[in-house]
Amino acid sequence: MNTSRKSFIKTLGTFGLLPWAITQSAAAQQLTTPSRLNGSNPKTLAVGSRNALRGVELAVSMMADGQDPLDAAVEGVKIQELDPDDMSVGYGGLPNEHGVVQLDASCMHGPTKRAGAVGCLEGIKTPSEVAKAVLELTDHIMLVGDDAKTFALQLGFQEENLLTERAREAWLRWKRNLNPSDNWLNEDGSNPTSTGTVHISALTQQGDVGSITTTSGLSYKIPGRVGDSPIIGAGQYCDQRVGSAGSTGRGEANIMACGSFYVVERMRSGESPEQACLSALQRVVEMTESRLLDDDGRPRFNLNYYALNVNGEFGGATMRKPSQRSLDNGGGTFAVAEPGNARLEPMAWLFD
Ligand code: GLY
To answer: 0.90 exceeded by the pTM?
Structure first.
């Protein structure tokens, strides 16, 4: 770290402004280069995973007040990171096979063409903010493990126990039933564990985009496993000229397809956000090894994409049509917000 950055951080710390000081994006103050998809008319909009309903509502109200899209999206996903009842993200997330919560997050900022990410971060409730700090304060894109934690602690983040009693009990239940439910490959090739995650893509009326994805990753994963969420182009991706996309679901499949990058590239080629999400799912199918496909060649796992373009259009798609029971309970939906109107919208699906 050079002297000027050191003194900058020290000054913030002296005035008790860390880590909250970094929520005011230095990146946001840089000039935007206008460049639109096709003479678009952007509007204040945020989309995300279903669990981001409160988050997209907050993000849109922040952007309507003139705030930066990435700052707004990060504040949105923090609602889930800090919520102990969301067992797929941040505090309260399900741990790895050793009972340790390891968090992944990444973000991008369209106007400044910057990205930041953390992988295998322990002890910090809001990896989204640490990823944004990597984006804003460093010349790097990804920090991992203990060094990512050290970086966060240096910035003033607090180390805390992230394993809630509920998550610990769930982990103990899993341990008592080890095999065939662990993360090692079983003889029949199945690998039944769960993935959660929260994503938000955000667009301002000025046409600036930002994206963030954050997760506790695959439940009971092998320690050190990093999923798609902290991988730029997989867990999320945005391009100021086109739009933004993100993903939830089986990270390994999404990494193989560079899914969020692919969604943005399909939108660049003229596809609607929904069609681009379906195209990415099709690419995932094509990239899937046979042990993960059923007899009809359909993936056994689930994966979801969410996208918006700079015209203010949006869409989401999931791999399979949800069961009727799931649909009756709001399954197969994603979160969308415009000022004063946050709601769940139905997703398209690739397979009936
Ligand atoms: N998509 C979350 C994960 O696989 O870690």
So the answer is: no
